[in-house]
Amino acid sequence: TFIYKSSPYFPLQWFPLPFSPFFALNFLLYLKSINVFLSLSTDAGIQPLLPLFLQFFSYKLMTDLNDNDALQRVCNYLYRLIDNQSLPIHLFAHPILRIIMTIILKYNFGSSDDKALDVALRSTCSEIIDRLCSRCISGFPNIRTVIANAMIQALFNPKTTLPAHYGALLAIQHLGKDVI
């Protein structure tokens, strides 16, 4: 996280700040207080906040990897950000892919034993990958090939678990048959 400061010696400089759990809690309360889905999918004014959103989603992924409900909320927020046509999503394709591919290829079913929640989460992530590919094809022309290669590597890795195999197969299915 960065804060913008100016001083007499260094006018207009960015200074790094640690991303704290206190800040994450306040940010989460803010997201709950506004009509988030409408704002994320239509508001052009959130463009400067896009790196902060992605950092927050990475933090939630790191702290709540076994909580499928929290991961589903992260996926819903990401889907709305990708739907926002005024945001330069192609510039942030790699951090978004890192978040989504971590969820798709996670090794277990999550905190609950309900396999249907996990299947729904991996299906949502594969839809997000498809939507991201359609948005970023002009700025990242080989995005489908990169994702397909990562999923194929996961399939052929003998240490990959069955849920991760299922997520990789879902992602390849959503990428389309012309990728392989």
Give an overview in words.
- The chain has 180 residues and is mainly α.
- Helices cover 62% and strands 4% of the residues.
- The protein is built from 8 helices and 2 strands, in the order ββαααααααα.
- It has helices at residues 21-33, 36-42, 50-63, 68-83, 93-104, 115-136, 143-156, 162-175; strands spanning 2-5, 13-16.
- A two-stranded antiparallel ribbon has the order 1-2.
- Helix 4 runs parallel beside helix 6.
- The longest helix has 22 residues, at 115-136.
- The N and C termini lie far apart (39 Å).
- Mean pLDDT is 80; it is low at 1-18.
Major beta-sheet overview: 2 strands, antiparallel
Q: What radius of gyration results from the CA coordinates? A: 18 Å
Strand order of the largest sheet: 1-2
Helix content: 55-70%
The chain-level mean pLDDT equals: 80
Order of helices and strands: EEHHHHHHHH
Structure keywords:
single chain; 180 residues; two-stranded antiparallel ribbon
A few lines on this structure:
The chain has 180 residues and is mainly alpha-helical. The protein contains eight helices and two strands, in the order E-E-H-H-H-H-H-H-H-H. A two-stranded antiparallel ribbon has the order 1-2.
Helix and strand layout, with pairings?
Layout: E1 2-5, E2 13-16, H1 21-33, H2 36-42, H3 50-63, H4 68-83, H5 93-104, H6 115-136, H7 143-156, H8 162-175
Antiparallel strand pairs: 1-2
Helix pairs in contact: 2-4, 3-4, 3-5, 4-6, 5-6, 6-8, 7-8
